[in-house]
Amino acid sequence: QVQLVESGGGSVQAGESLRLSCVASGFTSSSVYMAWFRQAPGKEREGVAAIATIGRTYYADSVQGRFTASRDNAQNTVYLQMNSLKPDDTAVYSCARVRGVVAVGFVDYWGPGTQVTVS
What b/e sequence results for 77-98 when a residue is b if at least 16 CB atoms lie within 10 Å of its CB, and e otherwise? Predict the structure, then answer.
């Protein structure tokens, strides 16, 4: 059974950092494209970061230079390090297994999400 579980969200002040974790089970995360999405109140869900099987990463313009995606294959876990957080980063963050494209229509599995609030 495939499962994704995020953790690490919370409430921080602008300029602070958080690291989100996503533990995968039921498949080997290192062999697939993993992505992070976020959804703010009243807005559509957007892809913000992703990491490919060979370690190549993708970032949305809005987080480029501030967020870093990484993975620990031994732990079957992917991470999202978020630095210099802004109030506009406030959202529910979800990890997802995607089919090569960081878009909602290409998601195979979603995690339940973790709330990030920046004030």
Answer: bbbbebeebeeebbbbbbbbbb
